[in-house]
Structure formats: structure tokens, C-alpha cells
Amino acid sequence: MESKYNIIKEGRGIFVDIKNKYCLNENDYIILFPDDMDELSNMVIDNIEVLKRKKYVKRFFFVCCDQTNLHVEKRNDTIWICCSQKELDALMAYYTLVDFFSNIIVASYDMPFGSKGIIGKNGISLRDYVVDVLFV
Amino acid sequence: MLVNEKDKETINSLIHNRRKFFLDKKTIIFGCTPYARDIYQALDEHDIGLSLIIDNNPKKAGSGKLCMGIPTKNPNDLNDDEIRNGIYIICSKYHLEMTSQLIELGVNENNILCIHVGESKKLFEDDIEKMESAWEEVCLGRNLVDKWKREYGRDFFFFLLPYPGTGDAYMACRYLPYFLEQNKIENIMLVATSNNSLKVVKLFGYDTLLVSHEEMSIVLRSWEVFEDLRAFVKPLLHWGWRTKRFISSDNHPQITFNEMFLYDTYAFDRPHEGYLPKQAKTGSWVGCFASHGLKQGKTVIFAPYAGSFTYNISAQDMENVVIFLKNKGYDVCTNCFGKEKPIRGTVPICFPYEEAIGYVEYAGVFVGVRSGLCDIISSARAKKIIIYESGFNATSIDYFGLVNMGLCEDAIEIVYDNFDKFVSDIENEV
């Protein structure tokens, strides 16, 4: 359990660095792309304007460890933060423990909770899932 | 969504501390949510009148709709006086968006009061103390699960029912056998925080364990942090308990409570026929009806209480419906327990869940607000009139409707907007 706690502490350190470096405020949003779910991640990226309008977001911080398969477009309102897998895992571990920032979305079906079971059922598309579940 | 005691205290104390803020102003609540009910009560206790409730959802506000008897509007329909002289109370996790919307409409930022409860968290919660105390809690949660394993056996799987609603327990149990079969799980324990949930679980024949809300909370938290717990612990929830993730029926009416359990909670790849709970054929209803002078087949069982939600249908409205039913030749009884009072002019009866269908079929008619009991009696061969309420999502007919959910095809479902319509709906259906 001690090693888990050390990872969480490391995650907190990473977040605090981001918060201080970019002076995060209520109009900022962090999106974590935790693993290799490229289809979901790209759906999030492709529909980010919906979140922007819905939440009055002025700056996005996209945190990932590998951009290779992601739709990385030049956007004036987006800052990409590329980190190591270990750092991303630490941030995620911290998020599972504490809601350290209220404007955060994890581009994942099951982290920290949930499943992708509803997608494809009764006409629910991946886009619906992104816009109406992740962007709540 | 449930408003807990801590949230109520927060709402009360903020209204108390800011009571002078409301003098000579029109008080307006933004959001037809269960929090609105507690804000309304807190305002009332401080003799502060509530002028209006606004909401962006056309199903909840506008077009003459009332919420708790208060007029409603879409924010875009606010008039100049309301924009200039309104004090706006927001209590929602969407407070940032709602504040921005009001400011865009011309409301002065100083006239907006945000009440931060569990739903509307602070922007940052990154202090070390918060992390340390959260860690202590998840460790306690982990230890508790370890204790369960020691007590019940290493091969046991623990299903958590964090939400106290009986309807949630019903839906969870309805499909649980498929999950057990799919995952080859044999020894299980269903863990719940309310006795009513446990009673429902027992109808399906599963073993139960009652824990406190605090114990449930720390186990859920540790379940998120320690991924290895997922091999033998599973929350049976149709929404992310912390992140509140779920698909809104406002945009997707084809998704109901039923689909959420089938596909989200259990992640099944296809629909399943739901299991029905066991019912005792004791016939105890015969003696009960005889002792109260209630007629077989010509009695209405009125069920005006729901465990998780408070309805706004007034006692007077209920009494008037009872008078109408009696004039039509029905005997009327109220299903009530403990401190719940029968509707005036009715006989109080109570029955265990395992006999609910027997009672309803013997009576002939069931009229009840949407509650977990409605799930249990959904398969009864009787006239079933289920009442939903407009204004709050808590019992949305789209999401919780028995027919929409596929629990039965013969339920008569009506939405309570106002008394006149309510009575005419009942008149048409009985």
C-alpha cells in the first residue's frame, strides 16, 4: 500500500506543477488520455467544441503520453502536455483518490468508474457517450 | 440524486447567514432539482418568499408548469424586472455554466448566490491534508473488505448496493444471475446500506450484509483506488457514484433505468429476460382485508410514499382523490409503515414485499407514486396506476416508467402537474 501512496503523491506533485505553471482557473479544463483507447480519445478531441460551449472553457490541457494516433490539430485554446506513462498513471492514481480539480475529464470508459456497455445499444453512439456521459 | 443531511445543513446555514441579502428582492432558484426543495424549505423557514424557479429543460420549466407550486420559466424568458431585481440561487455541479448564462442574460454577478454542496465541488481539492485523509479512508475501506473476506471466505464475491433505493436493488437483482453465470461466480454477498434494499435482495434469495453509509463510502473509494479489489467487489450502480456519469434520458429517451442496469452496470452484450422475485402465497391478504372491511377486487391500495424521494402532491389532493374513489364505490387503504400516516379517510395497511403482489391482486387496484414498490408489483394482475411527478428528474417517466422499462405493459402511468389534471387523469383511468 505504501508504494501506491507514493505513486499518488507523485501524481499530486505533477498536478500541482501544472496548476502553478499554467495558473489554472475555473475556465480551464484538463482532459486525461490515460491509455491506448484511441477511438474514444479521438472522439473526445473531435467533439471538444461541444465541451467548450457547454462549460464555457477558455483553455484545454490535453494530457497524454503518446500522441501518435491522436488527432493533434493546432488549436489556439489547447495546450498538449506529453508525459511519461508512469507520470500519467500517477496522475490517474491521484484522481482515483481525490477530485483534485473539478474541471477534469478522463477519456476512459471505466476509469474511475463505468463501462462501455451502453455504446451501440438502443442507438447510443460513441459520440453520444462522449458528449452526454463524459462531458456531463 | 439524493440530498443528504450535510447538504441540507449547508443550504440552511447559507440561507440563514445571507438572509438580509434577499430583502426587497425577488428570490429565484435556478434549477428544478431536489436541492430546490431544500432551498425552498430553508427560505420558508426564514420568511423569504420564493418568486420563481428557472430551468433550461423544457420538460421541467416554462409553459405554465409549476414546481412545488411555484411558477417556472426558461431563463431566456426572464423579464427585465427579474433580471434587475432577482436574487438567483444556484445549487448544482453546473454552477459555473449557470452563472455564466445568467451573467450573459444581464444578471449582476453580485445577485447570484451559489451554494456549494456535494454536487458542486470546489474548483481545487489538491491540498496535502485532503490527500492524506482520503488515503486513510481508502485504507480503512480496504481493511474492511479484507475483514469480509476473512469472515465469509476467500472465494466470496461482494456486490455493493450503495444507493438505498429499493428500485435499484430490484433492478440489480433482476439481472444478477446472468452476471454470475457469465463470470462463473458462486459464493456471493450483497452489501447494502438500507434495510429496504436488503428486503428486496432477500426476495431474490441472496445473502445480505448491512453496513453503514460510511462503511459503504470507504469501500467504494478503496474500490476505485485499489484495482485488485475489482476481482471480488463490484458496485451495482447505474451511474458513476463519484463522477455522476450516466446518460441522460433528456437526450436519449430510449435509454431507461432498465437499459442502464443491463448494459452499463452489467455490461451485457444483449438484453436478458429479467428474473422475478419470489412471492409468498400465504393468502394473508384475505384475513387482512376481511378484518378491515375491504372488498376483494374493489379496493384501491394507495401508496403515497416513496423511500428515496419526497413527492409534492399535497395531502389535500390525495384526500380529494380518495373521496372520488369512494364515490365510485371503491374501498381505499393506504400502504404505510412506521411514521407514515394513512391518507385521511383510508384504512392503513402494510404488507411485506414478498406478499405485495398477492395484496395488490386481491385488492384489484393499486394507485401509487413511483417507488421501488412499483417495481415489485409490476407483474401483478391488477389495475396499476403509477404517478410520476413533473419538475424533478428524480422520477422521470421517461427513465423510470414501468412500461418504458419493459417491466410490464399494462401499467397506467400519469404525470402529476397540478391537481385538476391529476384528478381528471385518475377519473379517466379508474
* Gyration radius from CA atoms of chain A, angstroms: 15 Å
User: What is the chains' assembly state?
Assistant: heterodimer
Helical run tally of chain B: 16
SSE succession of chain A? HEHHEEHEH
Question: How would you characterize this protein structure?
Answer:
The complex is a heterodimer of chains A (136) and B (430). Chain A has 136 residues and is α/β, with parallel strands linked by helices. Chain A has one domain (4-134). In chain A, 44% of the residues lie in helices and 14% in strands. In chain A, helix 1 packs across helix 4 (85-97). Chain A is globular, with a radius of gyration of 15 Å. The mean pLDDT of chain A is 92. Chain B has 430 residues and is of the alpha/beta class. Helices cover 39% and strands 16% of the residues of chain B. Chain B has 16 helices and 16 strands. Chain B has helices spanning 5-17, 34-45, 80-85, 95-105, 128-152, 166-182, 195-203, 213-225, 257-265, 284-292, 315-327, 356-363, 372-376, 397-400, 402-405, 419-429; strands at residues 26-30, 52-54, 66-67, 70-73, 86-90, 112-114, 157-161, 188-192, 208-210, 233-235, 299-303, 331-335, 347-349, 364-369, 383-389, 412-416. Chain B has a 6-stranded mixed beta sheet with strand order 3-4-2-1-5-6, with helices on both faces. In chain B, strands 13-12-11-14-15-16 form a 6-stranded parallel beta sheet. In chain B, strand 8 (188-192), helix 7 (195-203) and strand 9 form a beta-alpha-beta unit.
